[in-house]
Amino acid sequence: MNYKLIDMNIFGDDRGKLISLEGNSNVIPFDIKRVYYIYDTAPDQDRGMHAHKELEQVIVAIDGACQFILDDGKSREKIWLNTPEKGLYIGKNMWREMKHFSYGCKLMVLASTHYDENEYIRDYDTFLKEVND
Ligand code: TYD
Predict the structure, then answer these.
(1) Which residue, among 51, 55, 37, has the nearest Cα to 111 in the 3D structure?
(2) In 21, 30, 42, 91, which residue has its Cα 20 to 30 A from 112's Cα atom?
(3) Whose CA is nearest to atom 5 of ligand 1?
(4) Does the pTM exceed 0.90?
């Protein structure tokens, strides 16, 4: 499985907490080329349903929670992202589905490449062929 949960380095004191993310560090293992965020989601509306040929990402649930299904073509694992204190790294060739968004969930995504629809795999059978060949 080409994913891992990363523990963030937290600067906390009486005023609250701060987490800083820098590219090419042990927290973000790539140069950050793009940042996007997902919000205004609903529990019955799934997202994702694709893999990337090239893109690596770190996803942070800044607020709220959602479930990720991660699939490398051989097995499937489910994990919850429910704290801003962990980042979910997803590498290349991983099918992902996002489900069960809490109301008000906000996901921030750090990405290793600019947006390129051509490097998406949006069909599950095509994904299985690519990873198992
Ligand atoms: P999509 O990748 O389908 O979202 P999710 O993975 O959350 O299901 O993207 C939704 C739309 O936004 C789609 O039309 C492509 C567009 N988009 C961009 O233009 N730039 C981006 O950086 C991203 C991530 C998506």
Answers:
(1) 55
(2) 42
(3) 48
(4) yes
